[in-house]
Design a protein that fits this description.
Strand order of the largest sheet: 2-1-3
CATH superfamily: Ribosomal protein L30/L7
Structural class: alpha+beta
Strand content: 25-35%
Largest sheet: 3 strands, antiparallel
Number of strands: 3
Shape: globular
Radius of gyration: 11 Å
Length: 60
């Protein structure tokens, strides 16, 4: 099992967005603007990142 991580930063507000998109942001562990979290690179996390990619900055 690889422990590859993604650094994900919220760069646009999620207020007023679709509920499913807000849920993806919360699922990634992001709570506020410009917060950065490291998530394990799994297909589930990658799918959430892809769904709300317009609000995020992602680094490998």
């Amino acid at each position: 099992m690889s422990d590859k991580k993604l650094k994900v930063t919220l760069v646009r507000s999620f207020h007023g967005r679709l509920k499913k998109h807000q849920a993806c942001i919360r699922g990634l562990g992001l709570r506020r603007m410009h917060q950065t979290v490291e998530v394990i690179d799994t297909p589930e996390n990658r799918g959430m990142v892809n769904k709300v990619s317009y609000m995020l900055r992602v680094e490998d």
